[in-house]
TrEMBL record:
PANTHER family: UROPORPHYRINOGEN III SYNTHASE (PTHR12390), UROPORPHYRINOGEN-III SYNTHASE (PTHR12390:SF0)
Matches recorded under InterPro entries: 4pyrrol_syn_uPrphyn_synt_sf, 4pyrrol_synth_uPrphyn_synth, UROS/Hem4
Organism taxonomic ancestry: Bacteria, Pseudomonadati, Bacteroidota, Flavobacteriia, Flavobacteriales
Gene source species: Maribacter arcticus
Listed GO biological process terms: uroporphyrinogen III biosynthetic process
Protein name: Uroporphyrinogen-III synthase
Annotated Tetrapyrrole biosynthesis uroporphyrinogen III synthase domain residues: 19-235
Superkingdom to which the source organism belongs: Bacteria
Entry's Gene Ontology cellular component terms: cytosol
GO MF: uroporphyrinogen-III synthase activity
Coiled coil start-end: none
Transmembrane segments: none
Length: 247
């Protein structure tokens, strides 16, 4: 069956000329964006119950923009003035760039990985005597704490925000040719919102091994996978699939 409509379970990209825009123009398909999950911050009381005192830390490990936002939100709620001496270890350039929303970049000690969490390891090792705080969601990839434990450093995780399943009830009678997922939480949201979901002719596209496992565990048929050596991005995988079926 030809592909005419796609639902991507993420917010719409803010950048102009995103890869999805090019896909829409080239293949003449309709692409909608709808987050299947969203983030909600926990309050300062909840953080205190985790026995977190921001005064105890000299370095912050930031894995996402959400981590940046919620660290500074909690700091404000706790009336904690973040010292200029605080060190920031950012998983990627995008996270480090976003940090400028809260600090004067050139006046702070900021260390930046390239993309993966493990890219931070050499940087953290250089400053192993610091006291590290990892602000995170309640959902955290296992490799993150495992990596930090292996470094034998003084660190602590704090849950500053939670991943929550979005209400998708308005989509009950809306059908798409392809549903695109990027996390196990997205698959969980689909099944919680639509426990009677029947895949039928709907194609499922998944990104990452953990999402593949979640889709398989839910008994879904996976039609499109990324990343692969041939299609390292989801838009490339969609492009390849659509080109083959829309002949």
């Amino acid at each position: 069956m030809k592909v005419k409509t796609i639902l991507v379970s993420q917010p719409e990209p803010k950048m102009e000329n995103s890869p999805y825009s090019k896909l829409i123009d080239k293949e003449k398909v309709k692409v909608d964006f709808r987050p299947f999950i969203h983030v909600e911050g926990v309050d300062a009381k909840s953080v205190r119950q985790q026995k977190i005192d921001l005064n105890d830390f000299t370095a912050i490990i930031l894995t996402s923009r959400n981590a940046v936002d919620h660290f500074f939100r909690i700091a404000e709620e706790m009336r904690f003035k973040v010292p200029d001496s605080m060190k920031y270890f950012c998983q990627s350039e995008a996270v480090a760039y976003y940090l400028q929303k809260y600090v004067v970049y050139r006046k702070r000690k900021i260390y930046v990985g390239t993309r993966l969490f493990t890219d931070l390891v050499p940087l953290i090792k250089k400053y192993k005597d610091e006291k590290f705080l990892l602000p995170s969601s309640d959902v955290l990839k296992l490799d993150v704490p495992e990596t930090l434990e292996s470094l034998n450093i003084n660190w602590k995780r704090a849950i500053f925000y939670k991943t929550v399943i979005s209400d998708l009830s308005d989509l009950r009678n809306v059908y798409y040719d392809i549903l695109v997922f990027f996390s196990p939480s997205g698959i969980e949201s689909l099944l919680q919102n639509f426990p009677d979901f029947e895949q039928k002719e709907t194609r499922i596209a998944v990104f990452g091994n953990s999402t593949v496992d979640a889709a398989n565990g839910a008994g879904l048929r996976i039609d499109i996978k990324a990343p692969t050596p041939e299609t390292p991005s989801m838009t490339m995988a969609l492009q390849k699939y659509i080109t083959s079926v829309n002949k």
